[in-house]
Design a protein that fits this description.
Layout (H helix, E strand, L loop, with lengths): L2 E7 L2 E10 L2 E10 L6 H19 L1
Pfam family, one: Gp49
Protein name: Type II toxin-antitoxin system RelE/ParE family toxin
């Protein structure tokens, strides 16, 4: 599962995408969003990092 925290800044909306893994909050990707929709490249990067964490945990 993936979550996000966000706040408004002068440059746009700052977002940090994160997941919970083994009881810990893992920050996956942070960026400043200037458009209404989250760019696919930012979502893809966060998901790829999440997959890597899950694979490393399996051994």
């Amino acid at each position: 599962m993936k979550f996000e925290v966000r706040t408004n800044l002068a440059q746009g909306i700052a977002r940090v995408l994160f997941c919970i893994h083994e009881g810990e909050m893992i920050l996956l990707h942070g960026f400043i969003k200037k458009q209404r929709k989250t760019p696919k490249k930012d979502l893809d990067l966060a998901l790829e990092r999440k997959r890597k964490i899950e694979l490393e945990a399996r051994g």
